[in-house]
């Protein structure tokens, strides 16, 4: 019986630690404080928020023109894995960001 009583007392202590008492604050003041806190957090979120921009898709001809190479070169680079292609139906597309990343700097020492 004493272990059960000890367990009940421990549970009451835990619940007492989680209880918040508002003394000398009206419900309107509490609501205003919560709204102000939410507004501040939303402002912080807006300042740090970076919307995700969808990748621009390019056709094979657009990639060819962008890189100033022949269409067969785009095809060969795709087969070798230098460029990653995406398909939709019978169409082939490339992500502009990935085409730009495929351009590597040369060491001209």
Summarize the SSE layout with pairings:
Layout: H1 2-18, H2 27-48, E1 57-59, H3 60-67, H4 71-80, E2 85-88, E3 91-95, H5 96-102
Antiparallel strand pairs: 1-3, 2-3
Helix pairs in contact: 3-4
Short description:
The chain is mainly α and 109 residues long.
Count of helical regions: 5
The stretches of 5 or more residues where confidence is low (pLDDT under 50) are none
Distance between the termini: 84 Å
Q: Beta-sheet strand percentage?
A: 5-15%
Gross morphology is: elongated
Percent of residues in helices: 55-70%
Q: What spatial order of strands do you see in the largest sheet?
A: 1-3-2
Computed structural class: mainly alpha
Number of strands: 3
Oligomer: single chain
């Amino acid at each position: 019986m004493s272990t059960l009583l000890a367990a009940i007392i421990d549970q009451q202590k835990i619940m007492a630690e989680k209880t918040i008492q508002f003394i000398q604050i009206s419900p309107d003041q509490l609501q205003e404080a919560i709204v102000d806190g939410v507004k501040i957090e939303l402002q912080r979120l807006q300042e740090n928020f970076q919307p995700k921009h969808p990748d621009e898709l390019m056709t094979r001809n657009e990639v060819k023109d962008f890189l100033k190479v022949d269409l067969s070169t785009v095809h060969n680079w795709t087969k070798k894995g230098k460029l990653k292609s995406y398909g939709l139906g019978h169409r082939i597309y490339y992500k502009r960001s990935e085409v730009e990343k495929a351009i590597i700097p040369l060491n001209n020492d």
